[in-house]
Structure formats: C-alpha cells, structure tokens
Amino acid sequence: MKLRLFMYLGLLCGGLYSCNDDPTPLPTSKNFITKYQNPVSICAIVSGSLETSVPTETYNVVSLQIRPYENTEDCFTKDLVDEAQFEVLAAQFRDTDFNGVDYLDTPVMYVQTESLNIVSDNDYDAAHPAGIPLNDLCNVFYLCVDDILANSYRFTLTAQQKENKWSAGYFEKSITEFNREKPTLVAFDFRIQPIFRPAVPGTHRFTVTYKNIDGKELSVTTEPLNLAGRAG
C-alpha cells in the first residue's frame, strides 16, 4: 500500500473542438520525496477536549501540534532547499528512480534528529517535577519515510498502521522511543499528547524542543494551559 499524499484527477480534452472521455494520465515523478525542508521557526497549536464540569477553560485531554508555521501553506512552501541542493539530497538518499504517481508532496527534513523533548513548568506527578522531561509520558504521531527509502520504495505496513488504517510512513510512539530511533526523513509536524492527565489539576506551560545532529535547536513554549487532574 503506497503513501498517497498528492494526487489529482482530471479529463483530457483532445483537439480544439472536442473532448474525449479518457482520464488525464497522472503526472509521474522520478523522486518519491519532492520537497526537502530546513525549518527555521517553530510554533505550537493547542487542541483537545475541555472539562465541562468546571467553569474555567480546562483541558481534559490536550494535544500539541508542533510545526514550523501556524499557516498550513507556509508549512508546505517555506524553508525549502533550492533545486541544486534537492538533486544532491535525492542522490544521497538514493531517491532517483521512483518514477511513480504516489509520490510524497509533504516536505521532510534531511538532517538526522538528535532529540525531541517536552517539559512543563509545573509538577506533572511525583516522578516528573517541573522541568523534568515528560518524554515517557507523551506519545508523538509523525510521518517518517526512512524505511521506505532504505528499502527501495517498499511500502510494507506495520501492524500498527494496519490496525489504525494508516498509510505507510505514519507512526505513533512514545517520545522516548522516537528519540532512541533518531529518524532523519521526518515531516516537521509532530502531534504530541500526554497519555494521561497530571496527578492533580493545575496550570502548565509546556516547552517543546527539537534538535538535530548538526546542532540546530528550535523551541516553543505554550501559553498557560489549565489541565484536569487524574482525580478530577
């Protein structure tokens, strides 16, 4: 099952005065990856479900989307490499003979990840006081095509992808596991969610930091968020 992130359908009109019913051939690409990105900024978009039993805006479940820009179009069009560097990277990752229509139009980074970390400015539980990483308490959903490129465009689904009906390349893991693997060809669009609420209700400002092995560090801190506690 291939990753289908950029396809379009149309009808081919033949001649000046008539159209036939044959579908327009889908465009092919010699590269599976069509955009490499070197992000220079970071933002956090907060979402989740609210606790309706309290008068203030309190999250029962909170999720953070970490990406370069708030505007989706900017995330897809800014900080991309030029044509010359693209060709170098395509050769480096052996992505020059895909010649297919199910190519990836989502930009991916090309420098190996060093770490992704999340901390709070408030105590989360007894084992995670303020400032201690919450990586083992948070899952991250992300797109990575390292395996697809390393295995000559093999789109074999994992058990998790089959169970959730995800396309090849999508994963959900603890941030701790993500950091052990240190992926490279990753979209800078991380969906981070704690697997359970803090021990007690409280206000938290989360700071998420991304680092790569070249020394790049991007960090963002949320506004104060009221979170329901496990007993709340």
Protein structure class: alpha+beta
Backbone shape: elongated
> Roughly how many Å apart are the termini?
43 Å
**Mean of residue pLDDT values:** 89
Largest sheet: 7 strands, mixed
Gyration radius, in Å: 21 Å
Percent of residues in beta strands: 25-35%
Order of helices and strands: EEHHEEHHEHEEEEE
Kindly report the oligomeric state of this protein. single chain
Query: What percent of the residues sit in helical stretches (DSSP H or I)?
Result: 10-25%
Number of strands: 10
Low-confidence stretches: 1-20
- Count of discrete alpha- or pi-helical segments spanning 4 or more residues: 5
What does this structure look like?
With about 230 residues, the chain is α+β, with helices and mostly antiparallel strands. The chain has helices spanning about 70-75, 85-90, 145-150, 160-165, 175-180, and strands at about 45-50, 60-65, 115-120, 140-145, 170-175, 190-195, 200-205, 205-210, 215-220, 225. It is built from 5 helices and 10 strands. The strands form 2 sheets. Strands 1, 2, 4, 5, 6, 7 and 10 form a 7-stranded mixed sheet that branches. A hairpin with a 4-residue loop joins β8 (about 205-210) and β9. It is elongated, with a radius of gyration of 21 Å. The protein starts with about 40 loop residues before the first strand and ends in a 5-residue tail after the last strand. Mean pLDDT is about 90; it is low at about 1-20.
